[in-house]
């Protein structure tokens, strides 16, 4: 069955020197940071960043993450983190592809899942808050299921 994509977003960045090892390739742990930078840009674009989540009474911890390294990113390289938001109702699930910004060559595939947790009680929410759904539906590429 083909997955539904609620919306798409992308973010470009340049690989800084402090993210690479002696061979000038990105240390594997820094890819997680690139996902977070892109995710924060997406959340800001819909007006529902982590500060707004907190104001609404929720934390959104990562509950699952998968990465597949295909080719290394290198110092000074511009990369584009492409995001497909594939679940919004029970959690926030995003599929990512990190590509070379100039050639489009695939470097990494990843996925993250975040769940809403009520900050007052610490209880995981099995349905995402209405405030989240209203915000994500405002993204210019939003497509209802």
UniProtKB/TrEMBL annotation:
SUPFAM superfamilies given for it?
Answer: Thioesterase/thiol ester dehydrase-isomerase (SSF54637)
The record, for CDD domains, names: 4HBT
- A GO molecular-function annotation: fatty acyl-CoA hydrolase activity
Keyword presence, Membrane: no
Superkingdom of this entry's organism?
Bacteria
Q: Which UniProt keywords apply?
A: Hydrolase
Family per similarity comment? Belongs to the 4-hydroxybenzoyl-CoA thioesterase family.
Stated name of the protein: Acyl-CoA thioesterase YbgC
């Amino acid at each position: 069955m083909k997955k539904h994509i609620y919306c798409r977003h992308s973010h470009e960045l340049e690989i800084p020197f402090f993210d690479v090892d002696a061979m000038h390739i990105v240390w594997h742990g820094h890819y997680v940071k690139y996902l977070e930078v892109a995710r924060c840009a997406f959340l800001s674009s819909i007006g529902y960043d982590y500060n707004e989540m907190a104001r609404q009474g929720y934390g959104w911890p990562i509950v699952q993450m998968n990465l597949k390294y295909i080719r290394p990113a290198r110092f000074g390289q511009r990369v584009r983190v492409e995001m497909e938001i594939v679940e919004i109702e029970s959690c926030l699930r995003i599929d990512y592809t990190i590509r070379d910004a100039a050639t489009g060559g695939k470097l990494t595939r990843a996925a993250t899942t975040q769940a809403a947790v009520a900050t007052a009680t610490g209880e995981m929410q099995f349905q995402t808050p209405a405030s989240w759904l209203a915000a994500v539906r405002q993204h210019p590429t939003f497509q209802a299921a």
